Amino acid sequence: MKNKNKSKKYETVYTCDFCGGEFQTKKEAGSHEQICKKNPENQKNFLAPIMKIIKNPIFLILVVLVFLFNFDSIKKTIQYQLKIISLRQFYSNISNIEKQWNWSLYYEFLPNSTKKFVTRSQYINYMSNLKKPFSTNIVINNIKIDGDTGIINRTRIECATSSCNGNDKSIDTFDRVFFYTNGYWKIPEEIPSDRALNISSFEFVEFVSETNKQNSIKNWGKYGVFNLNYAIYNFALSLDNNPEQMIKEENLIENYKADKNRQANTRTVVKYLPSFPMTVPTFSMPKTTHCRPDYMGGVTCTTY
Description:
Blueprint: E1 3-8, E2 11-16, E3 22-23, H1 26-35, H2 40-44, H3 48-54, H4 57-99, H5 103-106, H6 112-115, H7 120-128, E4 135-146, E5 149-159, E6 169-181, E7 184-186, H8 194-206, H9 210-219, H10 228-240, H11 243-262, E8 289-293, E9 299-303
Helix pairs in contact: 8-10, 8-11, 9-10
């Protein structure tokens, strides 16, 4: 240990050979030199305490756990953002296809549940005969991702004429739902429940007379396709979207069956009508109505 002493106002002091610090005793100076930051030996080993901690097995385990937790969180964040970007792109693509009035290409994006009843030629023929708006503008307000379900809140502005005011302008805001499968966004399939299908089938067979059946089939058709199976399918979908109405229809059927059993030995038959108006569907379209696809296999209509 190297120490210096010198006189200062007739007192002996000891200095550090590395930093020049002064101490009253040789022991204090020697102790300081061992930890002095300017001591070359200490500069070589300043990482020693840190390395000692790093080499501790417990520390290593904690580092691995923190890394794995953060990695999973970062991975989920990246996947979430990528889904938002891809959904925005998908919706923009199908919107542009509609603006181009390219119904042959748009048919490719329809769910299989719609293609099961509607052929490409039927769809093209129906959509091509609709009134084309002068302009269409779609603004995406918000995008939410919940697992493999994506929801786009959008505002659609359509103009029937260049002036685009009054009755010539229509604005609607709505949520569009899409599903992410096999790396791609798709328009969701519309599959009615067995419960709704049973009600719909029963009412078309038992409640609708042969005289009115064709009118009911026509009213519950879509895209110019009118057949019994498609009408039953669409009526069932409407019941799934209206649980309260489904309960009413079930009660109506139960009452009908009960009355029919009581009257089995008589010639009197009470004819029931569905409480849900089968001849006035929610999507009934007058000739002056402008319609467009609703991205879920349906049609959104606006009367001008």
